[in-house]
Write a structure and sequence with these properties.
heterodimer; A: 255 residues; alpha+beta; Ubiquitin-like (UB roll); Fumarate Reductase Iron-sulfur Protein, Chain B, domain 2; 2 domains; two-stranded antiparallel ribbon; 9 helices; 7 strands; 36% helix; elongated; B: 640 residues; Flavocytochrome C3, Chain A, domain 1; Methane Monooxygenase Hydroxylase, Chain G, domain 1; 5-stranded parallel sheet; 5-stranded antiparallel sheet; 17 helices; globular
């Protein structure tokens, strides 16, 4: 296969970026998308040109480190991670445009690499159950209905890649945030802190500069793990019920 | 050098309890005066960071990824063992201990392995309390399955993503401590050296991967939780970034390297598709619970999966079921892998390369229905289809063994401390409790055991014995290490040769796979040693690393790691040469039974190999820690 690549090149976070076009003539349909870029990079190094920087690690679709906005879709045309996308999903002779995630809260570091530490900070704001190591009850002490456990698991499969943000015209992170809030809101272990958790994580999300949700569901359509927007509805419920039932609200006379 | 494993005296079942009582404690008010550096944020690192911070220590944690949640523990699929005996099927701490010792081919310490089995039950409790969504039955209780090599159902799982869920649990616990200010997290930061002051580990040198800045960090103890070194083979199931650098630099600073030749080759991986291949993908071995492994009885070169369905039962060789009637497809990983290699060597391999065997679910789907199989393995089947373009519900999967895990690692005592005081190694980074072969679902167990339930006790004993005074990074030891690290970076950038880093890495990998992979012999290993020395010499004169050292430069990161892999490769070969017996994942062709099974030589080799670094291009020196078995009788492993 042969493909033409239009790739976003940007030297550093403060430099101006632009698209650069590369002709890639030895592509095999069995290559993963990242392997196709590996081969391009080898060619570039041989020519003495700076290789294209992109994030990746596990290359089996679970670490969430790979990104790339390919032909207008985060992680490309299939609902999967870029590392699991294979060149057989493209046509011989096709032009492929590759950009970094575009969001104010994900500044570009270099080429296709962006800074997603905002996600970590949102998790630090409340994405946990406050238990110390040791002194916990036996694992079978609290039965959890299978349906609830499965629903929590579905939310918990989020890999934190940021495709939801990249897909959203508002660069909203609500699918990501709601996945964690949902997981813990559903499970008995998460219930004692559910109010504070929803408030703190939403506050941090806003502070990081992510946009609001306007229900276009682009996030769900592009999420490589199929996280459902039902979680966003649940997060909103958690958030509002937390706000109106908080002590501050009650003490203030309901204002 | 005298290696003291510090295994406590007394009956097996009382060792850990007694030891915990005998360990010195740090007064709660004094814990905040001690700093601990933790390198790596996988299961071992994140669980240790959270647990030590909860106790009150000040933790600095480092990972090279953009977030600690990306550590490669996240990719573990199958599950985590624990001796809960929830299934009433005869499991116990002693049975888990016994299975692990036997599965490791009697090359692990009894005391360590018993402790591992003992604390396994607490791990599950801890994870459930954190909100880890393990699989459950309709009654709401936890579900278990049996897993490679075990005859009881003791494996807890979260669909095929158990590692992800456990890591996110540990990550969340660590996040809580980051928010508390007790853990300071350094993302995209790679450790490049350990700093010793008066013979004790007192800090590390790091490189900020975004700015290239080389920095020093001091502490009272250093924990390396940096995973395994499977990427020495270039192609493995490890993440692309997984590397040996932290452990190797520690080795060069005096830490002994234990059993480097013990490598686990996983039987169920997706076969290689071409030269562009950058990594191999594991299909969880839980698939072997329902899938049947076979090849055609008569060689059929190039046989495709789609055509396999037309081969009648009578012309199929279910070779694992045939050779091992009692364990069948569930034989341990090393046995399954070697058998796959054997049938491929006989020319019966399938697929375009002939380096693959079938894993067939037809019978399971007939028996349990597609829905049940989908519920168990849905995400794995999807992943397989994504990568290969074939649908495993309709035609058998094709699989082949690939490097997956390394049992070797830094030598540690019962307290998880290396022979360098204050330097610890946890999880896959240590030479560990798995002996010469790890059982399925035991890596997650060991990583979390070390981090949640061992190090919080043992580190106190060390810290209680030292002053809480801090050392300054202005000391010459730190400044000298910074200088050496910078010089090495500059050297890599100025060679400006003709070959890329990946070309060297591939060459090393092929050499290791050919001569130090699934089976090894003296002549091959000697050839490998020579080849690796040549690769090393050429690397340092002909590698091409573009760009500068003060920016994000991923080629430079790779070059730095590959240089260490080359040196490690030579040590692995040395170790494989010196151990002229077969045991677990280490198969020496010279030491086999008549029907081709591994033959141990207990009289000669019942010891841990611990290698001492003697300088650049100097022959490493072997030290032996004898393994003492007081409880189990050494038998030839048989899964017939």
């Amino acid at each position: 296969m042969k493909v033409t690549l239009k790739i976003w090149r940007q030297k550093g976070s403060n430099d101006k970026g632009s698209f650069k076009t590369y002709q890639h003539d030895h592509v095999s349909p069995d290559m993963s998308f990242l392997e196709m870029l590996d081969v391009l990079n080898t060619d570039l190094i041989k020519k003495g040109e700076d290789p294209v920087h992109f994030d990746h690690d596990c290359r089996e679709g679970i670490c969430g480190m790979c990104s790339l906005y390919i032909n207008g879709h985060p992680h490309g045309p299939l609902q999967t991670t870029t590392c699991q996308l294979h060149m057989r999903s493209f046509k011989d002779g096709e032009t492929i445009t590759i950009e970094p995630w575009r969001a104010k809260a994900f500044p570009v570091i270099k080429d296709l690499v962006v800074d997603r530490t905002a996600f970590d900070r949102i998790q630090q704001a409340g994405g946990y159950v406050s238990v110390n190591t040791g002194g916990v009850p036996d694992a079978n002490e609290i039965p959890i209905p299978k349906k609830i456990a499965d629903e929590a698991f579905d939310a918990a499969t989020c890999i934190g890649c940021g495709a939801c943000v990249a897909a959203c015209k508002n660069a909203s992170a609500m699918l990501f945030v709601s996945a964690k809030i949902s997981q813990f809101a559903l499970l008995p272990q998460g219930k004692p802190e559910r109010k504070e958790r929803a408030e703190r994580m939403v506050a941090q999300m806003d502070a990081e500069g992510f946009g609001a949700c306007t229900n276009t569901k682009a996030c769900e359509a592009e999420c490589p793990k199929g996280i459902s927007v039902t979680n966003i509805a649940r997060m909103n419920r958690e958030y509002y019920s937390s706000v109106i039932s908080s002590y501050e609200w009650q003490v203030g006379g309901g204002e | 050098m005298k290696l003291d494993s510090k295994i406590p005296e007394g009956p097996l079942a009382e060792k850990w309890t007694k030891h915990k009582f005998n360990l010195k404690l740090v007064n709660p008010a004094n814990k905040r005066k001690y700093d601990v550096i933790i390198v790596g944020t996988g299961l071992a690192g994140a669980s240790a960071a959270a647990s030590l911070a909860e106790l009150g220590y000040n933790v600095k944690a480092f990972c090279f990824q953009d977030s600690p949640r990306r550590a490669h523990s996240i990719a573990a699929q199958g599950g985590i063992n624990a001796a809960k005996n929830y299934q009433n099927d005869g499991d116990s701490i002693y049975r888990l201990f016994y299975d692990t010792i036997k599965g490791g081919d009697y090359r692990a310490r009894e005391g360590n392995v018993y402790r591992l089995a003992e604390v396994s039950v607490s791990i599950i409790d801890q994870c459930v309390a954190q909100g880890v969504p393990f699989a459950r039955e309709y009654g709401g209780l936890l579900s278990n399955r049996s897993f490679g090599g075990a005859q009881v159902s003791r494996t807890f799982y979260a669909r095929g993503q158990t590692g992800q869920q456990l890591l996110l649990g540990a990550y969340s616990a660590m996040n809580r401590q980051i928010a508390n200010g007790k853990v300071k997290m350094y993302n995209r930061t790679e450790m490049l050296d350990v700093v010793l002051v008066d013979g004790k580990a007192r800090g590390i040198i790091t490189r900020d991967l975004l700015t290239g800045k080389i920095e020093a960090h001091s502490a009272h103890a250093v924990l390396l939780c940096t995973g395994g070194y499977g990427n020495v083979f270039y192609l493995s199931t490890n993440a692309k970034g997984s590397n040996v650098t932290a452990a190797w630099r520690a080795h060069k600073k005096g830490a002994l390297f234990g059993n480097p030749c013990y490598t686990q080759i996983h039987p169920t991986c997706i076969p290689v598709s071409g030269d562009h291949q950058s990594k191999l993908t594991l299909m969880s071995e839980s698939l072997r619970n329902d899938g049947r492994v076979w090849v055609p009885k008569v060689a059929r070169p190039g046989l495709r999966a789609a055509d396999a369905v037309n081969i009648p039962e009578s012309e199929r060789d279910y070779f694992l079921e045939r050779r091992y009637p009692s364990f069948g497809n569930l034989v341990p990983r090393d046995v399954a892998s070697r058998n796959a290699k054997m049938v491929c060597d006989e020319g019966k391999g399938v697929g375009p390369t002939g380096l693959a065997v079938f894993l067939d679910f037809t019978d399971a789907i007939k028996r349990d229905g597609k829905k049940t199989i989908e519920a168990k393995y849905g995400n794995l089947f999807d992943m397989y289809q994504q990568i290969t373009g074939d649908n495993p519900y309709e035609a058998p999967m094709m699989i082949f063994p690939a490097v997956h895990y390394t049992m070797g690692g830094l030598w540690v005592d019962y307290n998880l401390m290396t022979n360098v005081p204050g330097l610890y190694a946890l999880g896959e980074a240590n030479f560990s409790d798995h002996g010469a072969n790890r059982l399925g679902a035991s890596a997650l167990m060991q990583g979390l055991a070390d981090g949640y339930f061992v190090i919080p006790y043992t580190i106190g004993d060390y810290l209680a014995g030292m002053s809480n005074e801090k050392v300054s990074i202005d000391r010459p030891e730190f400044q000298e290490a910074i200088k050496q690290t910078s010089e090495r970076i500059n050297k890599l950038l100025t060679i400006k040769g003709k070959k890329t880093v990946d070309e060297f890495h591939r060459e090393l990998g092929l050499t290791m796979w050919e001569y130090c992979g699934m089976s090894r012999n003296e002549q091959g290993l000697k050839t490998a040693k020579k080849k690796i020395q040549e690769i090393k010499a050429e690397f340092w004169s002909n590698v091409n690393v573009l760009g500068s050292g003060n920016e994000l430069n991923m080629e430079l990161e790779k070059a730095n790691r590959v240089a260490d892999f080359i040196e490690l490769g030579e040590l692995m070969v040395d170790d494989a040469l010196s151990r002229s017996e077969s045991c677990g994942g280490h198969f020496r062709e010279e030491s086999a039974t008549e029907d081709g099974e591994a033959r141990r030589k207990d009289d000669e080799f019942t010891y841990v190999s611990a290698w001492e670094y003697k300088g650049d291009n100097q022959q490493a020196v072997l030290h032996k820690e004898p393994l003492v078995f007081e409880n189990v009788k050494l038998t030839q492993r048989s899964y017939k």
